[in-house]
Specification:
The N terminus is likely disordered. Strands 13-12-11-14-15-16 form a 6-stranded parallel beta sheet, sandwiched between helices. It is globular. By secondary structure, it is an alpha/beta fold.
Length: 483
């Protein structure tokens, strides 16, 4: 037989990689049964048999059968599948009363939770981020879930799990260790959300305050944008505005442009060489260097001014080339991930050493507190990395303002002047309509892009901001107190 053109010989099916994966799945099935995750013959585990001699896309897939006692699984009880799902090897049926083995088949709303330590165990998330897990309706047969599962993953591309109502959860990772770790974290977070709800507390807000009202209910099953969310209100009146979320730019909106241009950028520029030299062999810095190399290679192909080749070897030579490239990127004020990620790590050192302190306009803290108490969730969207954003709001003259913020977006979701970026944010926040999101920025091109995505937009006019075109058509404010 063949697997995508690669012979799947009997030797391949009986290889060490396949045997070890069989044993691993049976061990995990027993462990998950003990945890109560796969009781009543439910649940299934699928793992690729890792073999360095075979391309990852062509490696065999092993799957535990459906409808059998998971705590009694043996290594020989697994299905072996080709990468395209064809069954290459099936387990033998056991005598009665055992059931014959069966290969598992395989408009959402979503569950949200934020400010929980275990969120850090979910890929791409940190303590201050909002974790969104899509929920789809169950069907009589698992293979009928395919379309709704695919739509949920497409709508929430960063998710690593999908809940199936009245059924269970699908969790995946780039390795069995990642999938197992995330499963444990999801289990903890779901359990915490349930207990908070039972205590009358809102699991989806940063302070987990009193849950006073469930104000929106499922209206159309299967509609990917329908949501059920908890929203707190003050004791005197219900908040009636259709505005559910506010997304804020930083530079020129919450923070003076001068702070970024005259403090943060020079600090990063003046310390890039020192930072790279002191942290050169750390995993974090090596990842930064890898990103910068890739960006420089692309810049050289495009003929970008200031781009110089980065040698493959020699610490001092590599650092010198990187410093030259980074300085050119900073001078050009480029909004690129490679630069922003490195800057964030340099600024982290500055904040930790009390050499830097975040600056916000005087009206910002009061507005954040007001919106938060009204049940409006506030997010930050900046070209600076999420780390840099958390640093800026985490240490200010007004103390830590992150308690009022539900999440952070950076250029990983896209360029701030592109409409698709705001569509991505809308889908991540899970609102019914884009117009339930208010975006506040000082940049006209960003306002145009956000408006095209259907968001409500206000332009912030602060000292030092660039002038706006005549007849721009947007509402403007000079202070957050006007919002």
């Amino acid at each position: 037989m063949a697997v995508n053109g690669v012979a799947a010989s009997q030797a391949y099916l009986e290889s060490k990689a396949v045997k070890e994966t069989r044993v691993l799945i049976s061990e995990l099935c027993r462990q998950f049964y003990t945890l109560g995750w796969v009781s009543g013959t439910g649940g299934s585990i699928t793992i690729k048999a890792h073999d360095d001699s075979i391309p990852k896309s062509q490696q065999l897939v092993l799957m535990s059968p459906s409808g059998v006692q998971k705590e009694r699984m043996e290594p020989d009880d697994m299905y072996v599948l080709s990468p395209d799902g064809a069954i290459l090897s099936s387990p033998s049926a056991k005598p009665l009363p055992h059931k014959p083995p069966k290969c598992s088949d395989c408009g959402p709303l979503f569950m949200k939770i934020t400010h929980m330590e275990m969120i850090k165990g979910i890929k791409g998330h940190g303590y201050y981020d909002e974790l969104v897990v899509p929920i789809i309706e169950n069907t009589a047969y698992e293979n009928e879930l395919t379309d709704s599962l695919a739509k949920a993953i497409e709508a929430y591309p960063k998710t690593t799990a999908v809940l199936v109502r009245n059924h269970g959860i699908y969790v995946w990772g780039d390795s069995w260790i990642s999938a197992k770790t995330q499963s444990e974290c999801y289990h903890y977070l779901f359990d915490a959300a349930i207990k908070l709800y039972q205590l009358g507390l809102d699991w989806s807000t940063p302070d987990h305050g009193p849950l006073q009202i469930m104000d929106r209910y499922l209206a159309n099953k299967g509609d990917i944008n329908v949501s059920v969310k908890a929203r707190t209100t003050n004791s005197n009146q219900k908040f009636e505005s259709s505005r559910r979320c506010i997304v804020l730019d930083i530079e020129g909106t919450t923070t003076p442009i001068t702070f970024v241009a005259d403090t943060l950028f020079p600090y990063a520029r003046d310390n890039v060489g020192k930072h790279l030299s002191l942290t050169y062999n750390t995993t974090e810095t090596q990842e930064d260097i890898k990103l910068l190399r890739s960006q420089v290679e692309e810049d050289l192909k495009q003929g970008v001014d200031g781009a110089v080749p980065v040698p493959e070897e020699g610490k001092e030579e590599v650092i010198a080339a990187l410093v030259a490239n980074v300085n050119a990127m900073i001078k050009a004020d480029r909004k690129i991930t490679a630069l922003k990620q490195l800057q964030g790590h340099i600024w982290k050192t500055g904040f930790e050493n009390d050499e830097l302190e975040g600056v916000v306009f005087d009206d910002v803290p009061e507005a954040l507190e007001k919106w938060h108490s009204s049940g409006i969730k506030v997010y930050i969207y900046s070209s600076g990395s999420r780390l840099a954003q958390r640093l800026l709001f985490g240490k200010t003259p007004y103390n830590d303002l992150r308690k009022y913020l539900s999440g952070f977006f950076d250029t990983a979701v896209g360029n701030k002047k592109e409409t698709r970026s705001y569509v991505e944010i809308t889908e991540s926040l899970g609102v019914d309509k884009p117009s339930e999101i208010l975006f506040v920025t000082d940049v006209y091109q960003e306002a145009i892009a956000a408006k095209a995505a259907g968001l409500e937009v206000i332009i912030s006019v602060r000292p030092g901001n660039s002038p706006l075109p005549e007849n721009h058509g947007f509402q403007v404010v000079n202070s957050f107190s006007q919002i």
